[in-house]
Design a protein that fits this description.
- By secondary structure, the protein is mainly alpha-helical.
- The protein has a domain of 141 residues: Recoverin, domain 1 (Orthogonal Bundle), CATH 1.10.238.10.
- α2 runs antiparallel to α16 and α7 packs across α9.
- The protein is elongated, with a radius of gyration of 28 Å.
- Belongs to the Ca(2+):cation antiporter (CaCA) (TC 2.A.19) family.
- This is EF-hand domain-containing protein.
């Protein structure tokens, strides 16, 4: 339900015009154009999609181990899948706790690359000649000329003030650097830590920057200087875009409560998780009985109640929240929307499966849910991989999500009620 109907609905309500394969915030003039309208998410949301794919591993393990012939072997298989689910759940919770620190490290990483590639672009514009040779090596003659240009006092060393003067020089606005970025360049190039750069340090720093640009760009098979310029520009734009996306996430208009007592908040969060687990374990069996009794009393098939009505009811909170955020038609709210969906699926996969497997193991029940597991694997893997390799979803991608929903229902119905797999 989350990855099909709600996922597709969020793309529909959050669609914006696509320009250069990127959604433009709050601009929706192309209507229902299948390729000209859609949404764009950030790279952190792609990571959430990958995590969701990983969360189906316990399903795959339990299903494969059920091929064992002995009853005791299958019982052990349930225990293995249970332990794996709990371990992955704890790992996911720890990831959420330390995600802030991960985000800060990513921001510092892309900030450094933005400055370095911006500086390299500035050097390239001031170079009278080719900065890189045909074999991909640095043109030391050109680098030396640039070094002497920056070294205004001719002492064969570059100081921070000389770097700042160079950075804020001709056409610096196009490179998007300022005087404060000169300190970052000094820190990156100054291997002797004496707050000044020798020619050797400057040359090695430029060479290192060019290698990073080649790795970030289109490859190392450079045929001419035009290729080098394109690679430097590509690396610079990539670093700038990544940094801006992370910065926008930091300055999000979503209100975040400042946590004063981290220890108490963490204990409260763990307590609520345990409470939710206990409630799920206590009411799982009565819920199944209630579905059976309701079906008998109304004449409505249990399949319809179990696979259509209950998913709508249990996922209603995520659906409302996701659609509200998606309707704001902004990239950062779209990212938040789909991160919420992938996170909800991840928790459903791990926490609910752990509770269910615990009941099966303790009571010594038989695991026989092949059709349901197949559907979970298909939907999670298809939508997870589909989302993890792209950040822009044109409107045509909605059809993939919407088609998966009736396909899943039909597959479960055929396998369970026609072929009698359960």
């Amino acid at each position: 339900m989350l990855l099909t109907v709600i996922w597709g609905s969020c793309v529909l309500v959050g669609k914006c015009d696509l320009q250069d394969s990127t959604a433009v915030d709050k601009l929706d003039t192309k209507g229902f154009s299948l390729t000209g309208s859609g949404i764009t998410i950030d790279n952190l949301t792609r990571s959430a999609a990958w995590i969701m794919v990983i969360s189906v591993i316990p399903f795959l393990v339990i299903q494969l181990l059920q091929l064992l012939d002995s009853t005791s072997g299958r019982h052990v298989a349930v225990l293995i899948a249970l332990i794996l689910s709990v371990v992955l759940l704890i790992s996911y919770c720890l990831y959420q706790v330390f995600q802030r620190q991960i985000q800060v490290r990513r921001m510092k990483y892309w900030e450094e690359r933005r400055v370095i590639f911006g500086f390299l672009g500035h050097v390239k514009k001031r170079a009278i000649g080719r900065l890189m040779k045909d074999d991909g090596e640095v043109n030391t003659e050109i680098v030396y000329k640039i070094f002497k240009t920056i070294d205004t006092n001719n002492d064969d060393h570059l100081t921070a003030s000389e770097l700042k003067a160079f950075v804020i020089g001709i056409r610096f606005e196009e490179i998007d650097l300022d005087a404060s970025d000169a300190d970052k360049i000094m820190a990156a190039f100054d291997t002797s830590h004496d707050n000044r750069l020798s020619y050797d340090e400057f040359r090695k720093g430029i060479k290192k920057c060019l290698k990073k640009a080649v790795r970030s760009g289109k490859g190392s098979n450079l045929k001419n200087v035009v290729d080098a310029i394109k690679i430097i520009d590509h690396a610079g734009h990539q670093a700038k875009n990544e940094h801006e996306q992370l910065l926008e996430g930091e300055q999000s208009d979503v209100v975040v409560e400042i946590v004063e007592n981290v220890k108490m908040t963490s204990l409260k969060a763990v307590g609520l998780l345990i409470l939710g687990t206990v409630i799920a374990a206590a009411f799982a069996d009565p819920l199944v009985d209630a579905v059976d009794y309701f079906s008998d009393a109304t004449g409505i098939p249990t399949f319809f109640i179990s696979f259509i009505v209950l998913p709508l009811a249990t996922n209603s909170s995520e659906a409302v929240s996701a659609i509200i955020f998606a309707s704001r038609k902004k990239q950062k709210t779209a990212s938040l929307t789909f991160s919420e969906l992938y996170g909800a699926v991840t928790v459903n996969n791990l926490l609910c499966l752990a509770v269910f497997l615990a009941l099966v193991y303790i009571r010594g029940l038989t695991w026989d849910f092949t059709s349901e597991v197949i559907v979970i694997l298909i939907v999670c893997i298809v939508m997870g991989i589909f989302a993890s390799f792209r950040t822009t979803f044109p409107l045509w991608t909605v059809s993939v999500a919407f088609i998966l929903y009736p396909f899943s229902l039909a597959l479960v119905y055929v396998l369970d009620y026609v072929l009698g797999w359960s």
